[in-house]
User: Fold this.
Amino acid sequence: MDNLLALDRRRGAAAPAHRPGWPGRALVALLLAVALPGAAPAVAEPPDHQGEELQEAGRPIVIQERLTVTDTRLRGEPESLHRVPAHVTVLDRDQIRRSGSRTLQELLALEAGVVVYDQVGNDLAKSFDLRGFTGSGTKLFLDGVPLNDPRGNALVLELVPLAALERVEITRGSTAALAGGGAEAGVINLWTGRPDPGGSLSLAAGGFGSFEATGDVRHRVGRADLFLAGSFYETDGFRDNSGGELRRLAGKLGWDLGGGRRLELSVVDAEENLGTPGALTRTELGSDRQRAPFNRLDQLGEGLTQAAVSFQGPLAGEVSLAANLYVRSRDSEILTTGRAAPLFGGFFLDSEAAVVGSTVQAERVWSAGDWRNRLSGGVEWLDGDTDARGFFTSPGDPGRVDAAGLGSDNTARRQALGLFAQNSWSPRPRWTLVTGLRYDRDEVGYVERTPDPTNGAARTYSELSLRAGASWSPGDRSAVYLSFGEGFLPPTVEELFSFPLFGSNTELQPEDSESWEMGIRRQLDGGGRIEVAGFRIDTRDEIIFDPGSPIGLFGANVNAGRARRSGVETSVSLPLGDSSRFFANLTLMDTELRGGANRGKSLPLVPDERLAVGFEGGLGNDLRLRIDGVWVGEQVLDNDEANTRDKLDAYAVVNARLAWSPSFGRRATAAGAAGGAVLFVEARNLLDESYESRGIFAFDFAAGRNDVFLTPAPGRRLMAGLEWAF
Assistant:
């Protein structure tokens, strides 16, 4: 938060220098490289086994695991990954645990198409980018409940209780027909809890005064099962005013109703209180990367509480039902002082949001011979209010909030209704055709009590979104797919009403996107996989901030016309022996604004190249090593839509984790898995790389001129701890 006028109202604005031709050539080469190795004979479906060995002609044959994903709005009949026309990544509970990640951002940072960067400077409250859509282009669901902020579609990923997650599914591409507004880049489905009895406890401490405690317990009595998980993390921070704490709790009570029917009550409660030291100029970075001379008082406080009731199971015949009903409250307290404080003081924002919503989905699956059809459809609604009050603080004491300094008092409301239907038809075992249709109606309302009671209105937007795709399996281990999807994102309350002098524009139209994707996936011997996806996403009416617009005193948000994001994603996972694997994710991106004064320029904060690689496996003597790294290419600075400034430098970061499982500590758990003690030591930024994850070109109130501000990342952080599974 470098200064209030530089807050990102642009969501992707200008566009990239275009280098035509390479995405198509690279995609063809990669597809041929994957597809040319011989294909096995086709079968109707890969068998649903994992690691089972059979004997044929005197040699063992390993039947590959059938990987299933969620391809409907709510969880229903599991769908084979080979039938899904999209680039999908699935992370299971063991992968989540072995990663050593503190937050969902850290877990996802290694995946194809993902970039995370630090806007506020504390290394925890990081922003998330998928396929070149920063912050608000991805729809996030926890057990089918949307977590995006209804006021601005923003994500607070660090509040997700990572210890409670059983499964993470990333489905890329514009999918409004599946998830509604805000899914221009894709959808992330998070699933919690499992009924298998057992539990775990982990304690760790290390660099920057960091301490972390994580635990979960699972228990079953008759038809009832209970899951509880929680974590607590605190740190002094790697620089001035970057410390704080993060607490997350989750619980789920499930009841088996018989006949495949299940009822669940789930609760999430999370809170963070963190310092936000902001960015530094290049000169300040060279002097002292750890200091925060202008943001010593800035703070971020966020709280999330959610409760949901859900049902899933058959109704009659071949028809099944999935439904949820949820309520959520979220409160936020943000103090911003920064470089303008000696002149204008600071600003304290206090907001409280309440949301209620529900989704009901019916599904029917039937087949005859080789023919199979899966039809789903339903309705979704949401109603949310956000009350926000802002207080100006004095230049003499910018950290002191006084009720007499009330500068804004407003309420924003969003009501959304969606009707959706999707059909998945397999006329032959090798072929699947997917079509989807969704109608959405969004109403955004705003009432301002202070400073201008006349500033208030409502806007209603409606969208009809399509989805279509086809997948073909030439063999039981391969699939090729082609897909098309549409997405949209209504303008936020801030973009429409809240800042009449600083960017609001009541005539804004929703962003619209169209996504084309072609890909191939292949399952390898021993459980390995390789997937290559080429995509193009075209947006219309992209909302950017234009500082020269006459609508506002300092410029305004405007619909900037068309932009294009295109690229290739390659994901590889290779087994190395019985208990080791190598993985790599390569993303090549090209972005371009296709109209206006900055036509042909690159989008800010979207690297052209990004590579993540890793290894994890046993070293003998009960030792297990995980080492991973990510290289991120150069990025255009935020606010530099004209591409006139030097780019943010490329950087590389390596992490490592060594775990020892002493034989005397092992025993069988109630679920049959290996339990016992694990001692571990880990290093984040093992090579102590000095780098910045975000840059912005903005006005420096301290110097009275425009300058480049960079957010420093932490140096090497060592942690050691103990895990116990039971």
